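Quick question: what would this complex look like in 3D?
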Amino acid sequence: DIQLTQSPSSMSASLGDRVSLTCQSSQDIGNFLSWYQHKPGKPPKPVIFYATNLADGVPSRFSGSRSGSDYSLTISSLESEDTAIYYCLQYDASPYTFGAGTKLELK
Amino acid sequence: QVKLLQSGAALVKPGASVKMSCKTSGYTFTDYWVNWVKQSHGKSLEWVGEIYPNRGSTKFNEKFKGKATLTVDQSTSTAYMELSRLTSEDSAMYYCTRRQYRYNYFDFWGQGVMVTVSS
C-alpha cells in the first residue's frame, strides 16, 4: 500500500502567519493527491485537488504544490477559521490512502 | 446543488449487521462513483470502497472485503453500505462521498453516520 507521511503532526501558528503542511508519498502517485480540511462535527471538505488546484469555494490564500513525491499545502496568511485537521489523500493506486493528518491550531 | 444525505446514527450489538444509506441529489447519480470512508475515534480516515451506480461495479480496500457490502438503488439515487459481523473495531463514523472522476478526489461528502457497536 502507498504510505502518505504528513508533517508536522500538529502545529500552532499566529494569525497572519504563512503556514506550510507537507505530505510525502512512498510511491509515485503523479498529481492524484488532494487535501481536505476537517473540523469537529463536520465532514471533511476538499481544499486542493490534483496537487495544485483550488477546490470550489476555497479562499485563494490556500495553495498546493508538488516537488517529486513531496506535496505541500500552504496558507499564505492564517485566519482563525483555518484551524482544523488537514488530511492528504492519494487516489492513484488502490487501496486509496489518507495521511495521518496535521492538526493546525492558533497560537 | 449536490447533496449527499446519510441515515442516522446506529447502535448495534456485536455480531449483528447494520445498513446505512446515502441519498444523493443535485446530479446524475449514475455518472459518479460513490465512495465510503471510515473514521475511527481519534484516528485518520480510511478508504472502505466504492461503487459505480451505473453498473453496480465495486472496488474494495482488501481490509474491508467480507466486512462491507455496497449496493445502490438507482430509482431513488441512493447508495447503501452494509457492515456485517460487527465488533467494537467497527465503531466509527462512516462517510459517503462522491468521487470527481477526472481528477480523482472527493468533491462532495455526506454528513456522516456514527455507528456504535455495544452490547
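Answer marked as accepted. The first strand of chain B starts at residue 3 and ends at 6.
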